[in-house]
Automatic annotation (TrEMBL):
One of its GO terms (molecular function) is fatty acid ligase activity. GO terms for biological process: acyl-CoA metabolic process; fatty acid biosynthetic process. Residues 41-399 form the AMP-dependent synthetase/ligase domain. Keywords: ATP-binding, Ligase, Nucleotide-binding. It comes from Candidatus Enterousia excrementavium. This is AMP-binding protein. Residues 450-528 form the AMP-binding enzyme C-terminal domain. The keyword Nucleus does not apply. The keyword Ligase applies. Belongs to the ATP-dependent AMP-binding enzyme family. It comes from the Bacteria.
């Protein structure tokens, strides 16, 4: 595979061998488009790099030679429209095939793409234009996004270019280009964070970022020549870079893209995997929660051999049910928009359902307490990355135009993720949650994820979010907001059954003293539960807490344990 050009060894025989020798080697002036795609276009010109289809049945295949040629033409087109090195351009391309050509073209001339989701509204787009000082917007009209963009642009001097113009330029513009040199530290791409706890931030990645995804594709997703890999993400999210471009092509895999409007059903996804002989699949836990309710026997998934999960912590119940349906063990990975994969379960590590595995090569991960001291096994600490030997390949440069926030996360020789976890005696890491999500009740610390995992084992529970609500005697009380499965009713009897279910399976102080049944949970547009919004809504309602307390009969605190 092409990735071995950037590794010390061709093969690794153990996790320890991988940790010692698996970090990428970075050449000077590295540019993914020139040094990977253009080289592959010469070495393997007819190999299919991109297999694209949409929900209307249209299909397209692109070889590495075609990607190289087309990206040259589009680069010349962008230059003709006045775009130069360092300019920022917002992309709203859903999963259109032109997205991949655009990204490669922009890398070649140093224009900075800002991939964005088509689900944004005018005010979201206006915020991004102002923050990034974008010179242009390139978009696919999916029925609403063009109107939202036009409203956001207003009278600003911002070009609006359609995907149709991009596609036409492939046939009309010259397909050769002179290499534009870049420094490794130059900004290559910017992603806005999903904004689960604050306004979206601009995450700036440099030109060596693609090499960080050797860890993602080769060692976590375990891809190699001949694989057809399907990551579900829309192009507007960093997970697209994780699973649909850089690392996968370095690993020699074909990237499969299924472009669809709206929300894809379990049938849509499974049919696409079967019809296109997908060998490897990656999606967030919310997708697997949907898939486990499907009848897998209706689809020929004989090609599928590997499946991975990231985005939020994986509930063990989902792991077991997917394994029972497919005989495939989900390999969990952990990272952020600010990073590539930092921890994962790889080929040398047996998955533990719910664990995010162990650190990736080149990433010195440490769990620190509030005083910056390492914590022992079994104790919760913040996930931090030591920078004493330099920044790992794939860690972001900083928050674009926000030195104050950058300094907040890069301090005392560490990158502070803001996520907390603990490490077991076998060296596996277990996600606990965001610092802001931890619930402190009567002196105990409760992980929302742990309580959610237990509740998901109950047949009545389809989805759940656990949060804390103010309580005069405990400081915070544990609350579960639950979406029920079909045929279950949110009665007082079920409330007590769910509480007993949690009490029987974990420490008594963790059971939800407040339970609310809802039709749906608030989600970010990337599919993550918005626990912060649930907390805000509960505070605003005020009247919710007392009636629910009366229903479930809160009594004296009968907790017997402390979470040290």
């Amino acid at each position: 595979m092409f990735a071995t050009k950037f590794l010390k060894k061709d093969k690794f025989d153990s996790y320890d061998d991988y940790i010692q020798n698996g970090a990428p080697i970075v050449p000077d002036h590295f540019n993914f488009s020139y040094d990977v795609i253009d080289v592959l276009a010469r070495e393997e010109p007819t190999k299919v790099a991109l297999l694209w289809t949409d929900d209307s049945g249209e299909k397209k295949e692109f070889t590495f030679r075609e990607l190289s040629r087309m990206s040259n033409s589009v680069a010349n087109f962008l230059t003709s429209r006045g775009m130069t090195r360092g300019d920022t351009v917002l992309l709203f391309m859903r999963r259109r095939w032109e997205y991949w050509i655009l990204m490669l073209a922009m890398h070649k001339i140093g224009v900075i793409p800002i991939p964005s989701t088509n689900q944004l509204k005018a005010e979201d787009i206006e915020y991004r234009i102002e923050q990034a000082e974008s010179k242009a917007i390139i978009a696919f009209d999916d029925g609403h996004i063009i109107n939202e963009i036009k409203s956001a642009i207003g009278d600003r001097d911002v070009q609006l270019i359609s995907n149709v113009e991009v596609a036409e330029s492939i046939d009309t513009m010259p397909d050769t280009i002179e290499r534009v040199m870049n420094e490794n530290t130059d900004t290559m791409v910017i992603y806005f964070t999903s904004g689960t706890t604050d306004m979206p931030k601009m995450v700036a990645h440099n030109f060596i970022y693609p090499l960080g995804h050797i860890n993602t594709a080769v060692f976590w997703q375990r891809l190699h020549d001949g694989d057809v890999h399907f990551t579900l993400s829309e192009s507007g999210w960093a997970k697209c870079s994780w699973g649909k471009m850089y690392g996968q092509w370095l690993a020699g895999a074909t990237v499969f893209v299924f472009d669809f409007a709206g929300i894809a059903t379990a049938h849509d996804l499974l049919h696409a995997m079967a019809d296109n002989h997908v060998t490897s699949f990656c999606a967030p836990p919310t997708v697997y929660k949907m898939l486990i309710h499907a009848d897998f026997t209706r689809y020929d998934l004989s090609a599928l051999a590997k499946a991975d999960v990231a985005g939020e912590a994986l509930n063990p119940e989902v792991f077991e049910r997917f394994y029972n349906s497919t005989n495939i063990k989900l390999h969990e990975g952990f990272g952020q928009t600010e990073t590539c994969v930092m921890m994962f379960t790889n080929q040398w590590i047996e998955p533990k359902p719910g664990s995010m595995g162990m650190p990736a090569a080149g990433w010195d991960v440490q769990l620190l307490d509030e005083g910056g001291r390492p914590v022992p096994a079994g104790t919760v600490g913040e996930i931090c990355v030591s920078l004493k030997n330099g920044r790992p390949v794939g860690l972001f440069q900083g928050y674009h135009k926000n030195e104050k926030l950058t300094s907040k996360v890069f301090r005392d020789g560490f990158y502070h993720t803001g996520d907390v976890a603990y490490r077991d005696n076998d060296g596996y890491y277990w996600f606990v949650g965001r610092n802001d999500d931890l619930i402190k009740t009567s002196g105990y610390r409760v992980s929302p994820f742990e309580v959610e995992s237990v509740l998901l084992e109950h047949p009545a529970v389809r989805e759940v979010a656990v949060t804390g609500v103010p309580d005069p005697s405990r400081g915070m009380a544990v609350k579960a907001t639950i979406v029920l499965n079909k045929y279950f009713q949110g009665t007082d009897v079920l409330v007590r059954q769910l509480q007993d279910h949690v009490r029987a399976r974990t420490a008594s102080y963790k059971y939800p003293r407040i339970i609310e049944f809802v039709d749906s949970l608030p989600m970010t547009i990337s599919g993550k539960i918005r626990r912060a919004l649930i907390r805000t809504l509960d505070s605003a309602k005020g009247t919710l807490i007392e009636p629910v307390k009366n229903v479930i009969g809160l009594g004296k605190d009968d907790d017997k344990e402390k979470d040290k």
